[in-house]
Amino acid sequence: AQSVTQPDIHITVSEGASLELRCNYSYGATPYLFWYVQSPGQGLQLLLKYFSGDTLVQGIKGFEAEFKRSQSSFNLRKPSVHWSDAAEYFCAVGVHYGGATNKLIFGTGTLLAVQP
Amino acid sequence: SAVISQKPSRDICQRGTSLTIQCQVDSQVTMMFWYRQQPGQSLTLIATANQGSEATYESGFVIDKFPISRPNLTFSTLTVSNMSPEDSSIYLCSGGQGAGETQYFGPGTRLLVL
Known about the structure:
heterodimer, A: 116 residues, mainly beta, 6-stranded mixed beta sheet, 4-stranded antiparallel beta sheet, 12 strands, B: 114 residues, 11 strands
């Protein structure tokens, strides 16, 4: 069965420090992978996505993620965290669902706190 | 990218009543989806809203409890019927568009059932 695991429920980093959020997936075919961010009281915003090609993808707000097929991972990174990055981050895998449609399976999320 | 709006943004409802949530997309999308996010939890897919036909429900969700309509390519509604406090959640609508059907999400409807 398809699944997404985010091992870290809660992470605290200092402002200016680097960040890596972990994501592992289980899916039999080539995955479509996504990272979304949810700020308090807000909906979900797409940070970046991977479909094919270059395994290092760039997103908005200075985020990047690397797809590693051998490790079934799609970890999110940022070299220098800003206080405004405090939010909850969700990794998702797109499960092929007839035609061109993908329905999303979400991980449990990682809550990021940023210390001044 | 698609811009998605939802109404209402939040509501407080009494047990046993029903609430209809509207989702409007600013451009045509192939697929629309409804998700539930229970307090402190991740998103769970309720159903896929199909234009002109019955929605496709995920395991654990039924049409009698969550009737869904999608009369055209840019609009859908979700009704939460005969509500109980356990239905208190955020309900999010999404639309799939472009390569790989990237999903874009609305801001969510925050529902509290008393």
